[in-house]
Amino acid sequence: MSDDVVVPPLPTTKPIRLIAETGRAVKGAQTAGFAMPSVETLLGLYRQMVLARRFDAQVTALTRQGRLATYPSALGQEACEIAAVASLAPNDWLFPTYRDTIALLTRGVSPVEILSFFRGDWHTGFDPHAHHISPQSTPLATQALHAVGLATAAKLKHDDVVALTFLGDGSTSEGDAHEAFNFASVWQSPTVFVIQNNQYAISVPFSKQSHARTLADRAIGYGMPGYFVDGNDVAAMYAVITAAVERARSGGGPTMIEGLTYRMEAHTNSDDPTRYREKGEVAEWQGRDPVDRLEKYLTAAGALTDDVRGSIAADAEVLAAATRGAMNETPVLDPLELFDHVYSAERPALLEQRAFLAHELAQTEQTLTEMAGRA
User: Which residues are catalytic?
Assistant: First the structure.
């Protein structure tokens, strides 16, 4: 170990929190010295969480109606995702997983661009460069390496850019996660790792994934700060992530943040969570609901009046209606787009395959036209 390396302290024993389940502000050691965000900031976070939850519920309903192929809900995880997005500057980059759709929505991606991925229309329905968001990653932990790579490149070019990547508790067991953590720490890249520990890697509970006290404890082995945070407390998540982003931007290197949260819905619409978790466990976590917790705090503070609450709810319904409308429109798809953007310079084998498909499509169209003429 070099003499200039400072070993960071262990994460706190209890998760950092600023607002309790009752909606009251937390005082003392459990805040770990983090200050409560302003009421204005929290009201903005509340609005985004309500919009995100309504969007998530609407998309889940559309999936059950067969409008989408699959959808992994983030119900119950709004505090982690909304706080993370709110902590980033416009030029920072977000590296999401397949479950982080509401993070994309909050960062400005339209519903139709988001859902074209889950409908199977496009691999990625939005322009990553326009939003500074990488494609949603289905392979576990691969996006963490991409985040570190971009952040390291930004550091070498002296660009004022921070990369934040989401990880699930299950994905931290992947080799790619280890490589990302280690590379980021060795090269002190401006990367923030936000682990959403929602208790299950599909059907495998955290107790069967790791014997560690917390996932955040792993940070010490990589020589980076680690924070164990109440992932259903958006105030705490925002305060900790904002500090980590500022630290990364100022040259302080990477940070690992574990948000202790819970996935309320199934892993995806094809999953049956009743096979591996009890109703009592779900009910217990419903009592820790992140939206309800912040609503209580803001109401007590006088910032969330009936008029404000009603206005936000109305905006959420407008979003839901727009989402339904977008999914009711039949997309115009061109199968030949499958070959676009594969290589910067098209290769002969790909051109041959494209010509073969174009010929088949033309023959099919001609056959259908002839059949229609005979009908």
Answer: 263, 267, 276
